[in-house]
Amino acid sequence: MAENSELARQKRHYGLIRERLTRPGIAARRAAHIEELERQLVAFARDSEAKERQIAKLEIDLADAAARLLAQARILLADREKQGSDGEDGDRPSVDEIVAVVLKDFPDVSWDDIISVRRERRLVRPRHACMRAVYEQRRDLSLAGIGRIFHRDHTTVLAAVQAAGGSETVY
C-alpha cells in the first residue's frame, strides 16, 4: 500500500512538471531569452570589430613612432659622430665610414641589410665583419654601444669580435 501511494505521488509530481513545461508561456519566454542572447551576441561582435580596428590603429601608430625614434637616433648618432671628430681625436673614423669600407668587400649587402632583423646566412659574415671593424677602430665605444648601433645585443657583438680574434678575451 505504501508503494502505491508513493507511486501515485510520483505520477502526480511528474504530471505537474510536464504540465509546467508544456504551458504556452514557457516557449515564449525561451524564445525571448534566445532573442536577447542573439542581440547580445551581435553587440559583442560589433564591439570586437571596433576593438580590432582600434588595435590595428595602435599598431600603425606604434610603427610610426618607432620609425620616428629610429630617425631621431640616427640624427643624434650623426651629431655625436661629428662632435667626436671635432675633439682631440680628430683622426677617429665615424662608424658610417668604417662600415662603408667593410661593405666594399660585400657588394650585395647594404647598411639596411646589416641592421635588419633578418638572419640570412649571406648577411652574417658582413654584419660580424662590420661589428669587428667598429670594435677595433673605435675603442671609445662599448660593446653595448656598438650593439645599439647595429640593433643587436652586446653579447652578439662580443661573439662577433671573439670569433675573429680567436681566444682573445674581450671586456
TrEMBL record:
<dbReference type="GO" id="GO:0043565">
    <property type="term" value="F:sequence-specific DNA binding"/>
</dbReference>
<feature type="coiled-coil region">
    <location>
        <begin position="34"/>
        <end position="68"/>
    </location>
</feature>
<keyword id="KW-0175">Coiled coil</keyword>
<dbReference type="GO" id="GO:0005524">
    <property type="term" value="F:ATP binding"/>
</dbReference>
<dbReference type="Pfam" id="PF08299">
    <property type="entry name" value="Bac_DnaA_C"/>
</dbReference>
<feature type="domain" description="Chromosomal replication initiator DnaA C-terminal">
    <location>
        <begin position="94"/>
        <end position="164"/>
    </location>
</feature>
<dbReference type="InterPro" id="IPR010921">
    <property type="entry name" value="Trp_repressor/repl_initiator"/>
</dbReference>
<dbReference type="GO" id="GO:0006275">
    <property type="term" value="P:regulation of DNA replication"/>
</dbReference>
<dbReference type="InterPro" id="IPR013159">
    <property type="entry name" value="DnaA_C"/>
</dbReference>
<protein>
    <submittedName>
        <fullName>Chromosomal replication initiator DnaA</fullName>
    </submittedName>
</protein>
<dbReference type="GO" id="GO:0006270">
    <property type="term" value="P:DNA replication initiation"/>
</dbReference>
